[in-house]
Amino acid sequence: MSRRLVVKVTAGADAPERCAQAFTVATTALAAGADVSLWLTGESSWFALPGRAKDFELPHSAPLEDLLAALLAGGRVTLCTQCAVRREIGEADVLDGVRIAGAAVFVEEVLGDGVQALVY
Q: Dihedral sign, CA of 20, 98, 93, 9?
């Protein structure tokens, strides 16, 4: 059975340490061989847009742009449907590889066998 981790990040530039922790944990799990799904919700929704992760800065933290690129290359990145609508973000606006999906898909992922879930 593969190890699976779902990380839901609600923080963005408004809470940079919490945001960076979510991305760091997700990419560390990915590097350890886990099947990782990162959900962008709330203020982290903005990182689904091109260039936004590049502008994020936190001293002594890996660049968010690099962490996001790793997750897009080896895991799944999902933008919350409601969060996208509230911010007027559409499918055509997001980075390649980011899907937009809602609560039903999140619940399906979290309730899967062997899944660990974290919320930041």
A: negative
